[in-house]
Design a protein that fits this description.
131 residues; alpha+beta; two-stranded antiparallel ribbon
Length: 131
């Protein structure tokens, strides 16, 4: 039984080293009438990069990019050309809010931490029967 506990502790230590230090999500954070790009590291509480585009036919469109704790994609207003109409795009990868509209997908790729956790669980599944 003691050998099994040592194996589990070793796997947890390997997982901690593989994941490395936690770092925040990186998003473009800016506001402009064009597709601005200013990468910044977000606060730890931010899980999304958000891009909001407001249609202003007379003064030009306003693009605002930011870090966000929560986000809801809203494409229902695209194609309308009335003043003040807003479209919101959300994504969860580093610097994923670089492009405007449909280019900023809401897909989530496996992060290093997720990949490390899956690797550790896979190793544990292989070793566990012998514990």
């Amino acid at each position: 039984m003691m050998l099994g506990m040592k194996t589990v502790l070793l796997l947890l230590a390997i997982l901690a080293v593989a994941m490395g230090p936690a770092r925040g999500l990186r998003c473009h954070v800016c506001s402009s009438s064009t597709n601005c790009k200013q990468p910044q590291t977000c606060p730890a509480s931010s899980r999304y990069c958000r891009t909001m585009t407001t249609v202003e036919p007379l003064s030009g469109n306003l693009v605002r990019k930011e870090c966000a704790e929560s986000c809801r994609t809203d494409n229902s207003q695209q194609g309308q050309v009335s003043s003040g109409v807003q479209s919101t795009q959300c994504c969860q990868d580093d610097l994923c809010n670089e492009q405007l509209h449909g280019s900023a997908s809401a897909r989530t790729l496996l992060s290093g931490a997720t990949l490390g956790l899956l690797l550790a669980l896979g190793l544990l599944a292989i070793v566990a029967p012998s514990l």
